[in-house]
Design brief:
single chain; alpha/beta; 49% helix; globular; binds ligand C2E; binds magnesium ion; Diguanylate cyclase
């Protein structure tokens, strides 16, 4: 009996491993053709800056209200395949990274963002920054900054509208090389932010020396804010550290009004998350830009936050 159970268990693991490996292989094969088949697209998730202002309501009471202004957005890659449907970047990016395909895919992302930003600016939209996620292989590619420079020039974009997000772990892979690469990008005028901050292994002493502009508080801390005192402490520590190091700070994964209020009240006024907007298709995001330009006002669920 026991022997049989053991056999069943190993059979189970074997099947599970097999299923996983064959899915990986399938993804890998389909991913190889995804660029030429035009299966990628970008979604854009807006980022907002909260600002406090005083308001007097009908009964004459002063309220500290918050209004949001869109300050930028993050470009997020989407893959839609005929056979597989939508595949999450959490699943296909690691495969693209492991196989080296991320270099050509990443190049596509940068070109697409530059083209899109040029179109928005040509349409008269008030310029704002767009953030791109970088994988280690892209950053460490010797031709990377030349490629970025070329794309910016081709689309006649001021580099200050481009931001590159890297994780702490990328930075720690090879701190000297990463510093050099980031310096080249920054000298060009591109902004650098550290994504998923707090989840990696960066050392605080390095953080001070790295050529970075901002920290992006990981959404795991933001999401635990209401439940977990540790997360509250971590978030407050990250915010005050960013201020000390003269870095800007933004929180991602903001889903509730309470989280937004807590963050803004504690000095992190730049926010991104489902509470404001999901990542939007290029078309939907463009429509959103046009309608907020038309109304000449700040966007989104403004004036609903109050301390
Ligand atoms: P990330 O850079 O940390 O991006 C934030 C992720 O959180 C996105 O998932 C976004 O859709 C999601 N998100 C935004 N607001 C909320 C929220 O309020 N609640 C929750 N639960 N989630 C929220 P997505 O688009 O699935 O991307 C996952 C990861 O894939 C990204 O994490 C990034 O590391 C990677 N990725 C996406 N696009 C690219 C790309 O073009 N190149 C590279 N190298 N990596 C990318
Ligand atoms: Mg990111
Ligand atoms: Mg992140
Ligand atoms: Mg991430």
């Amino acid at each position: 009996k026991a022997k049989e159970a053991g056999r069943n268990t190993s059979r189970f693991f074997c099947d599970a491993l097999h299923a996983k490996a064959s899915r990986q292989l399938q993804l890998e094969n389909l991913l190889r053709k995804a660029l030429e088949k035009n299966e990628f697209s970008l979604h854009y998730q807006p980022q907002y800056r909260m600002s406090c202002r005083n308001d007097v309501d009908r009964s004459g009471l002063m309220h500290e209200c918050i209004s949001n202004q869109m300050i930028g957005c993050e470009a997020l890659l989407r893959w839609n395949n005929a056979e597989l449907g939508n595949v999450s970047p959490a699943e296909f990016i690691p495969i693209a990274e492991a196989t080296g395909m991320i270099e050509s895919i990443g190049e596509w992302v940068i070109r697409e963002v530059c083209t899109q930003v040029r179109q928005w600016q040509d349409a008269g939209v008030e310029p704002f920054r767009v953030a791109i996620n970088l994988s280690p292989r892209q950053l460490f590619n010797p031709n990377f900054e030349v490629m970025v420079y070329r794309m910016l020039r081709e689309s006649k974009l001021d580099p200050c509208w481009l931001e590159m997000e890297v994780t702490e772990n990328i930075l720690m892979l090879d701190i000297r090389e990463a510093t050099e690469k980031l310096n080249q990008l920054r000298n060009m005028g591109v902004k650098i932010s550290v994504d998923d901050f707090g989840t990696g292994y960066s050392s605080l002493s390095y953080l001070k020396k790295l050529p970075i502009d901002s920290l992006k508080i990981d959404r795991s801390f933001v999401q635990d804010l209401e439940r977990c005192p540790d997360s509250t402490a971590i978030v407050q520590a990250i915010i005050s550290m960013a201020k000390q190091l003269k870095l800007s700070v933004i929180a991602e994964g903001v889903e509730t009004e309470e989280q937004a209020t807590f963050l803004a009240g504690n000095g992190c006024t730049d926010l991104q998350g489902y509470f404001f907007n999901r990542p939007l298709s290029a078309k939907a995001f463009t429509a959103y830009l046009m309608s907020s330009a038309e109304h000449q006002q700040d966007c989104c669920p403004s004036d609903i936050l109050g301390f």
